[in-house]
Amino acid sequence: MIDAFSLHNKKILVTGASSGIGKIIAEKLSEKGATLTITGRNELRLRTTLENFNGESHQSLIADLTNSTELLSLAEKTDRLDGVVFCAGIVQYMPVKHLNLSSLDEIFDVNFKSQIALYQQLHSKKKISQHASLVFISSISAVSAVPATLAYATSKAAINSAVRVLASELSKLGVRVNSISPGLIETPLLENTFLNKEVFEKNAVKYPLGPGKCEDVANAVIFLLSDASRWITGTDLIVDGGYMLRQ
Amino acid sequence: MKLEEFVNSFADQFELTEKDEISAQTEFKMLDEWDSMIGLSVIGMVFNTYKVKISGEDINNAVTIVDLFELVQSKSEIE
To answer: Rounded to two decimals, what is the model's pTM?
Structure first.
């Protein structure tokens, strides 16, 4: 029987794979049979991720996607892809009145512009197969209006909008484009932020199904990359344990 | 870097608390209006004004405004 959820023989690129959600997603994709190219900024962490993979023939390519030369090199070295998971992201909590415009630029560069730039390079170098699936990791922050999250929230809202436009542009190639909006998930992204502990304790009660794990997001990614979702494009899949029900 | 200026900038982060309620020796986390948003505002003020990065833990460890002033002062001398 053909498993529509299998990723066997699919070549998938995962950005932001050296830590957090990206790392767990990459590991789960390897378990489902995907052949992976992972990229991130930290060589050592990227290598550790690679060691945890099932199977052979995966590769890691170090790249800072905000650096156009490194981005170009990544796109050149990548095989032709059946899927891309755009995971790279940074967060900063700051009330708007103190939001430094250069840090706003930095967050947009990493969370939004570099992801779009990567897509552009992959497409122009013919690295995206027909019927490929592009999955962007967004966030419920884009719409949940949590104080002190303007930079992160707007960068993710930009992703949501880009997904719909891209889905529209790429439909004639059979390429599907979707996003996933996770709720708050404990990852290194949240370490070293003032709100970490407080947000977690306060927010835990807001999730009807309890707190989420990276694996919950990874499973949604598997679905959107697999043929099981072949008729789904331009959507945002909320993976939040019911958080948005209470908004 | 002057203590008086620092206390004044610190007090500016509060929207509802009168400035005369805040002095160098104030145990700021005891103020009614204190919350994590004001904590973040203090981090932002310190970075934008003094070009020094302080963490949430630094704020958690400080009791009075002088404690934070001294921390920021030592960090700005190092950097």
So the answer is: 0.90
